Structure formats: C-alpha cells, structure tokens
Amino acid sequence: MAESHPASGHVAFDDADARADQMHQAIDQWLAELVDAVDEARASAQFQRWLDVQSCFHDYSHRNTLLITLQCPEATKVAGYRTWQREFNRHVREGESAIWIWAPLISPQCPACGNSPSYHADSDCDYDETPSEEWDEGVVGFNPVPVFDVSQTEGEPLAELDTAATGTADALFPAVVDAASDLGVTAEIVAAAAWPHGDADGVCRHDDDAMPHIEVRHGDPAAMVGTCVHEYAHALLHEPADTTDCEARELEAEAVAYVVGRHFELEMDGSARYLAAWSDDDADRLLDRCARIRETSQTIIDAIAEQTDCPGRV
Length: 314
Description:
The protein is α+β, with helices and mostly antiparallel strands. Helix content is 40%, strand content 16%. Strands 3-6-5 form a three-stranded antiparallel sheet. Strands 8-10-9 form a three-stranded mixed sheet, with helices on one face. A two-stranded antiparallel ribbon has the order 1-2.
C-alpha cells in the first residue's frame, strides 16, 4: 500500500515500480473508509476536504482531486517541475515530494478495439481497413505523473488575477443568474413578500417540453448564490420523476453548491451531514457521486465564469 506520513497524515507514493497500483489502492481505501466509517463526523470532514480540493481544481478529474486530497490537501495550484520553470519562472525547492496524479496517454486508436498500434498488434482485433498512421488520436490509458503545489516552489510571484467578482456575493450573484441560459435553465428571483413556496429558499421545476425552471427567494446575496447553484445542480443532475433517495439528492446538490461557492472564494457553510444520507452506498456508488458532483460543479463554474471577467481560483 501507499506509505502514510504520520506527522502530516498525508499519503506518499514512493515506490516507482508499484506507484500505479498504490494510487489505485489509495482511492479504494479512501472510499472503503467512508463506506465503513463509524465516526460520521470524521468521515464528513474527510469528504469535505475533497470538496475543498475540488473547488481549487474544478477541471481536474475526481480521481485526480482525490489523489491530491490524499497527498496534499492544502494544495491550491499545481504544475509539473519544468512547467513551473518555463511558464512561471519558479523552481521546486530541493527535497520537496511530488504529488502524483494521472495523465492521459494520447495515441492513435484502432477504430474497432480502441487500442494503440502496439497493443492492437498483440490483440485479437483483426481491423485492417486503414493503416495505423491514419487512425484518429485518443486517450488509450493513463500514467502517473509528478506535479508540485505552488507552496513547494519559489521564484517570481504569480500574476495577480482580477478578483473583483470573487469573494463578494453582491458582485457574483448577477453572473450566477445570467449563467442560467448557458446551463439550459430559466431562473427567476422572487420577492420575499410574494414567495409562494413556504420555508424553501429555492425550487426547481421540470415542466413538460420546457427548460427546467428555478425560483429563488430574494434575500442575502451569499445565500441566494448558494441556493441558485443548488437548484442548478438539481436541474442538471436529477430527473423529476425520480422520487427515491430524496435526501441523498439534496446533499449532492448541496455539495455542488459548496464546491462552486468555494471556487469563487465565498465563505460557504460546511455540512456535517454529507455522508449520513449515503450510508447505504457501496464504494462504486460513492465514487459515482464524486464524479457527478465534480462534473456538475465544473459545468456551473464554467458557465458563471463566462458571465464575468473573473474565473475564480485557477
């Protein structure tokens, strides 16, 4: 298994020959611990650490953000050793340990079996209609690659981003509402005095032959950002006819709102209840939820960023 460093609680993949297997095993163990957790508060804190990392790396796969969480949960910006030098004029400090993530292997792919030319030659596939030089390129696998967090480097300061729209809900909320059309959703902000939905802060409706429609009760801008993103998540993730696992679906939407809000540097309330509704999930189902949260968060973050000059944390 991967080596754990007791002083930091972080995992390291130091054995080059076994690294790929260790990376797979570390993710499996993380999931198993959440599924089997007796201490729900501890498990929820562990899950929330992943949400925090995902908010910094919204365009990374959920497997890679899980690996970053296990190795360096305080990471905010990562790049390869040479990339730090060439593009940022920064250098990795001597003695720093790499953070290992998966990078795609790009190669010509057999149109029939999807293998690279070398694997295709050793397979049972008999496709030979076009030579391998004419095959389209695609992802044929993944390899472990080392990256380093900015905190492990020194050199030229990173360029300052225009953050006028981040960290303040007053500035961010108009962009959140304007993102609705890009998401295939209609959005309506309803005055508190005219709110017809009781104690709910937001609702999402899927009318026949129409785009999903969300309504948000007017109030505190930060709360409206969270509610609006929560309802976007329902619109993108959940079929209205599916009335099972209602609490689990609510917490998926809550997790998406947390990731998106933190990406734009808003203070978001954490939840000590994330895992409670998922207690019957096995490891595969929990990993699937992570993928859904990651993909939906990325879609919403990208749509909001299109409406403002500020991309949030990159």
